[in-house]
Specification:
By secondary structure, the chain is of the alpha+beta class. It has a single domain, classed as Alpha-Beta Complex (Fumarylacetoacetate hydrolase, domain 2). It has helices spanning 19-24, 78-83, 97-103, 107-111, 154-162; strands at 11-15, 34-38, 43-44, 50-52, 59-61, 63-69, 85-92, 95-96, 116-117, 132-137, 140-146, 172-174, 182-183, 189-194, 198-206. Strands 2-1-12-6-7 form a five-stranded mixed sheet. Strand 14 and strand 15 (198-206) form a beta hairpin. It starts with 10 loop residues before the first strand and ends with a strand.
C-alpha cells in the first residue's frame, strides 16, 4: 500500500499511557492523561532517515498507535470521539531522552526534524480494542504493546483532549508507547508496525 502523505495540523502526544513504560523510566502513572505536542515539521515517512542531532547523545525509539482525526471534535463524549476517527497510523515518537530529562519540558527532546516517522494510514477503521504495536530495530523486537493495555483508552484520550483544544480533521494523536524503549544509533533500521494496519521503517543516520 502506498503511503498517503499529509501534514497534520497538530500532533498531540500522550505520555506514560502504559504502566510498564512509566515504570521503566521511574515514573508514576498519571491520574489524568499527560499530553504534549510535537511540531508538524518533525514528520517524515517510509524510508526517510531519522537524523540524530548533535545536541543529544541518547536518542530513543517510541513506537505508538496513532489516531488520525476525521471530524472536528470539541467537548465530545467518548462515543462521539470514536466516531470522529478517520484512521489509524503507525507513529515513532523519537525522543532525545537526555534532553527530555535535563530540559524539564519536552519540546526540544521531541521536536527535532525527522523525530516523527509516520506509516500509511489505514483505509478503514479497525477495532480500537484489539490493536497492537510492535517496534523492531535491525529486525529484533524491542517493544510490543496492545491498545487494551493502555491506562486511558483511545476514545477517552480524544474526549479528554477535546476539552482542552479542538481537534480538527487531519490532526494526529499519538497514544503512548509500551515498555522497551531503547537507543538508536547510526546505521540502525527501526520499524514500527501496527500488525495488519500500518507500518513505517526508517534508517538512522547522523545529522550533517
Amino acid at each position: 500500500m502506498p503511503t498517503r502523505k499529509y501534514r497534520p495540523g497538530k500532533i498531540v502526544c500522550v505520555g506514560r499511557n502504559y504502566r510498564e513504560h512509566a515504570k521503566e523510566l521511574g515514573n508514576e502513572v498519571p491520574k489524568e492523561p499527560l499530553i504534549f505536542l510535537k511540531p508538524p515539521s518533525s514528520v517524515v515517512w517510509e524510508n526517510d532517515p531519522i537524523k540524530l542531532p548533535g545536541a543529544s547523545s541518547k536518542v530513543e525509539h517510541e513506537g505508538e498507535i496513532g489516531v488520525v482525526v476525521g471530524k472536528t471534535l470539541t467537548w465530545v463524549s467518548e462515543l462521539d470521539a470514536a466516531r470522529g476517527i478517520r484512521g489509524i497510523i503507525a507513529v515513532n515518537d523519537v525522543t532525545a531522552r537526555d534532553l527530555q530529562k535535563t530540559d524539564g519540558q519536552w519540546t526540544r527532546a521531541k521536536g527535532f526534524d525527522t523525530f516523527c516517522p509516520l506509516g500509511e494510514e489505514s483505509s478503514k477503521l479497525p477495532d480500537l480494542d484489539s490493536l497492537s504495536v510492535v517496534t523492531r530495530v535491525n529486525g529484533v523486537e524491542r517493544q510490543r504493546g496492545k491498545s487494551s493495555e493502555m491506562v486511558f483508552s483511545i476514545p477517552s484520550l480524544l474526549a479528554y483532549i477535546s476539552r482542552i483544544m479542538t481537534l480538527e480533521p487531519g490532526d494526529l494523536v499519538a497514544t503512548g508507547t509500551p515498555a522497551g524503549v531503547g537507543p538508536l544509533n547510526p546505521g540502525d533500521v527501526v520499524e514500527v508496525e501496527i500488525p495488519g494496519v500500518s507500518r513505517v521503517t526508517n534508517p538512522v543516520q547522523e545529522s550533517r
